[in-house]
Amino acid sequence: MSDKITVAGVSVDTRHWIGGLRVASAGTFTDVSPIDGSVLGEIARGGPAEVEAAVAAARDAFPGWAATPRAERARILHAVADGVEKRLEELATVETHDNGALLRSHRRGVMPRVAHNFRFFADWLLTLEHEDFETRGHTNHVSWDPAGPSVLITPWNAPLMLATWKVAPALAAGNTVILKPAEWTPLTASLLADIAAEAGLPAGVLNVVQGYGSEIGDALTSHPGVRRISFTGSVPTARRIAASAAPNLTPLSLELGGKSPLLVFADADLDLAVDLAVEQYDNAGQVCLAATRFLVEESVAEEFTRRFVERAGALRQGDPRDESTDIGPNIHPRQLEKIDGFVRRAVAAGARVVIGGHPGEGQYYAPTLLTDVAQDSEIVQEEVFGPVLTLQTFTDEEEAVRLANDTRFGLAATLATGDPERAARVTERLVAGTVWVNCFFVRDLQAPFGGSRQSGVGREGGTWSFDFYCDLKNTVTAPNGWNSHG
After folding, report:
1. Residue 14: which of 210, 219, 215 has the closest Cα?
2. Main-chain dihedrals φ then ψ at residue 367, nearest 5 degrees
3. Which of 142, 199, 206, 208 is least enclosed by beta carbons within 10 angstroms?
4. Is the pLDDT of residue 265 over 50?
């Protein structure tokens, strides 16, 4: 087996990156493109031995990286961002082939955001401070001490962007990292390792270990040498990680699923509301933040639905490399089967298909809207993670809030209204980590990001990221502590 593959002209190393070296494994797994089912290559399949090597490398590199001055850490992170920008087209191309998201989105939004992740946390590091305060004449000084080797487990729906949401603040904080990318989308993590090495990141500070699910995940999350674990993914996997980390009391940050609502009031700009609704098909519905439950005031529901069907019908589904494509494929045959199962069971339970409701050729699922759904039904309560939306109606504000909050999730919510007072009342009562009013997916890295209820534990962004990746220390100094008795 070759150690490298070529994806649309881009060379990608298929081995792990451990301690500044490429490391092969005895076994491999097959990486397949969701665009057409073609095999991209055989990827090194890690296990306990690779985990042990990666944790050892991260542990050995930690003292030196933690002691590196903030300005130097920031300089290297900016150099990583430079490398991302230099190879932006390669990264965009490889990720599109690997996860099926739109190439135009990778070029214009996703990969520039990857570079921004490094720049933002590099700059935030240089301004990170807490004002000293006094207690009965004693001075309190708060500092952020690097915590240690950090395991970062990332998903397949936006592989590099979501990985660098974690990698950038962890490195900025002075931690070393073991990154485990999703097995369905491992390629851009390998390219990131090359970019980081070229930027001068010391050996062992960033390690990338590839593998299948629990074969590698359990060994990473149960390792006593790991001091932080950050995971983005499903609730069942999060439960397993929490159980694995519990014996060592390893701190966790968990960004999990959602079943977010889009509330449309009669006083909303309906064209704007429909724009927001159609946007929920982004990335073939594979977005944790997606407002998959439309809650529309009864008096405008018919007109909203008419306009939505018209707009959604104009979307073009097809090859994500085509500039004119709006919706690409779903990630894997297993995911497609899961999506279709949700729809078939919903229809059998009485749901009415407004549009879609069926798979297409290959790994494409038709953009779907279901109505006549019960609040306690599976399709309303469980995350589908595909281009499947539901529509329910409400008669007043009280019912809208009740329906919006009536799931076990609380990741996000989107609100369309023309009344600022109503917006203030409703957003105060919504259970969600992020609420968008008359907009969607506006994400500033200085804001806290995370979910309530079973949508997660902890927050990422700005100082919240450093609070997680560091051990906060408060030093209390007595007012006369410097008197000499010599």
Report:
1. 210
2. -55, 125
3. 142
4. yes
Q: Which letter, b or e, does each residue of 109-127 get, where b requires 16 or more Cβ atoms within 10 Å of its Cβ?
A: ebbbbbbbbbbbbbebbee
> If you count them, how many residues does the chain have?
486
Question: Any idea of the CA torsion for 332, 391, 313, 386, to the nearest 10 degrees?
Answer: -10
Six token digits for residue 40: 């991209």
Q: How far apart are CA 117 and CA 391, in angstroms?
A: 35
Dihedral angle computed from the Cα positions of residues 31, 34, 38 and 43, in that order, rounded to the nearest 10 degrees: -10
Q: Which of 251, 201, 198 is nearest to 64 (CA)?
A: 201
Q: Do 101 and 320 form a contact (C-beta atoms < 8 A)?
A: yes
Q: Taking the CA of residue 167 as centre, how many other CA atoms within 13 Å lie in the half-sphere pointing to its CB? A: 30
Instruction: Locate the DSSP E strands across 122-250.
Output: 133-135, 138-146, 150-153, 177-180, 206-208, 228-232
- Count the Cβ atoms, other than its own, within 10 Å of residue 420: 10
The enclosing H or E element of 272 equals helix 270-278
Q: How far is CA 461 from the centre of its chain?
A: 12
pLDDT (tens digit, 9 = 90+) per residue, 185-243? 999 999 999 999 999 999 999 999 999 878 899 999 999 999 999 999 999 999 999 99
Rounded to a whole number of angstroms, the distance between the first and last alpha carbons of the chain is 72
pLDDT of residue 486: 45
CA distance 231 to 245: 12
Q: Is 427 exposed, middle or buried (0-12, 13-18, 19+ CB in 10 A)?
A: middle
Of 259, 291, 292, 289, the closest CA to residue 382 belongs to 259
CA angle 347, 353, 357 (to 5 degrees): 80
Task: For Cα atoms 272, 322, 342, give the angle at the middle one, nearest 5 degrees.
Answer: 60
Strand partners, 6: 11
Tokens of 282: 């982004």
Residue with the two structure tokens 């296990």: 47
DSSP for 27-71, written as a single string: EEEEEE-TTT--EEEEEEE--HHHHHHHHHHHHHHHHHHHHS-HH
Closest by Cα among 398, 320, 306, 348 to 98 = 320
Place of tokens 């949401």: 165
**H or E element in which residue 479 lies:** none
pTM over 0.90: yes
Quick check: 270 and 300 in contact, CB under 8 A?
A: yes
Q: Would you please indicate which residues are annotated as catalytic (active-site) residues?
A: 255, 288
Handedness of CA 459, 60, 210, 73 (dihedral sign): positive
Specify the amino acid at residue 186.
Answer: P
The pairing of strands 388-394 and 412-416 is unpaired
**Whole-number percent of the chain with pLDDT over 90:** 95
